[in-house]
Specification:
alpha/beta, 15 helices, about 475 residues, binds glutamine, Amidase signature (AS) enzymes
Length: about 475
């Protein structure tokens, strides 16, 4: 068995028992990356020497001791590039560790590599990366999803033991679904955003992409908890996220939202998800049909609120403070204009223009304010649902991985990739995607993801449901066979 096919937990166990060194894990990854990544392009860069230096210092007895963790290119790691897969941050090197990075280190992990992504996390396929798309390990003519597509791809392809991504509207869960790994979006405020480059500050959360549910819990144990550097982080007690794994689902009530089984849902995805629902029912959960009546407004509301916040957040990239700067300009305004024209890609510009428009006087009330009101209704839908059920189960993505290039000329069809994930961000609740089957296409197996949504701060229950499902199925063990 290849070292790199181990889970985070398994690799850590070997390091702890001194059967494998952290350095060997780094070298194993580098070897696998050299072999596989030219085809997958999951990493933008990595620094072997720095990783080895960190590996030598890592304490093998800590919970993540000695294990390298891949990091999406929008989370600061001191001394490493942090470019958000954008030209405008080319050459920018992080001057500090994000809180999650510091916490990974404190748990013994070795931050490793910069995972590819859609520019500034805007997208669902990694095709908006300024440095070329990542490919899906199950079929390299298809996208790994996005925006954390590089992170999902390297985990699925055994080029990483686990990774950290970010999720603003689905960017952890959707690529996890399309690549056949586990992706968890924590409750808003559960994990500090300090040192995460902001896209839409009221929606962004950092979370794990892993090979199984236990690894997701392990990473959550390391990164969760209040942080004085992020005033939106919650001062709530952090449970041991491993505690409810293995407890089973009997006695739990799971809600099946009728609005999530709609036209446009790929029948192969529907079959796999309905199969998973039956499976959970056989394991002892009771399945209840529920309604989330404002679901149909989630997409349009998200595409007002997220761009509005993005347009404000991205104002800071002016060519003075960070990274790229246009040459040969005539004066300050020309400098700003040309730097932003040359530095941002088309999707990022589209979001800035949309966001500026919906916030401008005259349109603010009609769009932004109204979207905020609808957001409250969406949130209330979930509050009502969680009065009836312990967790909600539904598809993660309406389709399996789509072809590279298939949706790049049609932003709306790209936006639809997140139709089932973005409501959780709007409501601030937590959600996880786990593998629940395959769709066959062109002689290839394409993973399907099951999404489990939970109450705010109740990651433990969705991990419990996810682990019960995972422990009695084999989907998560399948490998793309690169
Ligand atoms: N695909 C969505 C968007 O483009 C969500 C991205 C994300 O979660 N970062 O906004």
């Amino acid at each position: 068995m290849e070292l790199t096919s181990l889970t985070l937990y398994e690799a850590q166990k070997l390091v702890r028992a001194k059967q494998v060194s952290s350095r060997e894990l780094v070298d194993g990854l580098v070897e696998s990356i050299e072999k596989i990544d030219p085809e997958i392009h999951g990493y933008l860069s990595y620094d072997r020497d720095q990783a080895i230096a960190d590996a030598e210092k890592a304490d093998p007895n800590l919970p993540l001791g000695g294990v390298p963790i891949a990091i999406k290119d929008l989370i600061n790691v001191l001394g490493h590039p942090c470019g958000c897969a954008s030209k405008i941050l080319q050459g920018y090197v992080a001057p500090y560790d994000a809180t999650v990075t510091a916490r990974l280190r404190a748990a013994g992990a070795v931050p490793f590599g910069r995972a590819n992504m859609d520019e500034f996390a805007m997208g669902s396929s990694t095709e908006n990366s300024a440095f070329g798309p990542s490919k899906n390990p199950w079929d390299v003519t298809r996208t790994p999803g996005g925006s954390s597509g590089g992170a999902a791809a390297v985990v699925a392809a055994d080029e990483a033991f686990a990774a950290l991504g970010s999720d603003t509207g689905g960017s952890i869960r959707q690529p996890a679904a399309l690549c056949g790994c586990v992706g968890l979006k924590p409750t808003y405020g559960r994990v500090s955003r300090f040192g995460l480059v902001a896209f839409a500050s009221s929606l962004d959360q950092i979370g794990p992409l892993t090979k199984d549910v236990r690894d997701a819990a392990l990473l959550m144990n390391a990164i969760a908890g209040a942080d004085p550097c992020d005033s939106t982080s919650l001062a709530e007690p952090v449970p041991d996220f491993l505690a409810k794994l293995g407890l089973g689902v009997s006695g739990l009530k799971l809600g099946l939202p009728k609005e999530y089984f709609i036209d446009g849902l790929d029948p192969r995805v529907e079959n796999a998800v309905r199969g998973a629902v039956d499976h959970l029912s056989n394991l002892g959960a009771s399945i209840v049909e529920i309604s989330l009546p404002h679901t149909e407004y989630a997409l349009s509301t998200y595409y007002i609120i997220a761009p509005a916040e993005a347009s404000a957040n991205l104002a800071r990239f002016d060519g003075v403070r960070y990274g790229f700067r246009a040459q040969g300009v005539s004066g300050l305004l020309d400098h700003y204009g040309r730097t932003r024209e040359e530095g941002f890609g088309p999707e990022v510009k589209r979001r800035i223009i949309l966001g500026t428009y919906v916030l401008s006087s005259g349109y603010y009330d009609a769009y932004y304010l109204r979207a905020q009101k609808v957001r409250t209704l969406i949130r209330q839908d979930f509050v009502n649902a969680f009065n009836q059920v312990d967790a909600i189960i539904c598809p993660t993505s309406p389709t399996p991985a789509f072809k590279l290039g298939e949706r790049t000329n049609d932003p709306l069809s790209m936006y639809l990739a997140d139709i089932f994930t973005l409501a959780a961000n709007m409501a601030g609740i937590c959600g996880i995607s786990i593998p629940c089957g395959f769709a066959q296409e062109d002689g290839k197996k394409l993973p399907v993801g099951l999404q489990i949504l939970g109450r705010a701060l109740d990651e433990s229950t969705i991990l419990q449901v996810a682990s019960a499902y995972e422990q009695s199925t084999d989907w998560h063990k399948a490998k793309p066979g690169l």
